[in-house]
Known about the structure:
With 174 residues, this protein is mainly α. The chain is 75% helix and 0% strand. It has one domain (3-173): AhpD-like (Up-down Bundle). The chain is globular and about 50 Å long.
Amino acid sequence: MSIDALRDQIPDYAKDIRLNLGTLASETTLSDQQKWGAFLASALATGNGAVINAVVEETKEKLSAEAATAARAAAAIMAMNNVYYRATHLMSSDEYQKMPAKLRMNVIGNPGVEKVDFELWSLAVSAINGCGMCLDAHEQVVRKGGLSADQVQAAIRIAAAVNAAAAVLRAEAA
């Protein structure tokens, strides 16, 4: 299955999601690696098998093995970090924010691809997972790394559309 096949599964009431996926697949603000890595990391973050399978199929020829692994790593590490940092941020006591996380996060320092790309994918996953602290942290890194606000927005738009596709397919399966 590909992005087009995924779009075909989305019912007419969610036509906007279908159209947005098509538009974002043609996005030119990001490099192909940045764009397809954001699609892959976002799909993995949704946990929806149909969305994951479609995006994995679509990205097989568009991402190097290293980039695909890094996108997977971004989804994995953010699944942990988004929970931890969101929780410490939401708690009334700021004592927890001052404590070291004591969680291994080595992949962030050595992701196997350009740091800015990995951070962009981490930002997209953080948008899906709703962690404001992580969004701020990754946005600062990618902006310092030379990405524009338009590029950051493009990654967030990809995350939003991929997440919406997963939500629609979950609802249809219920």
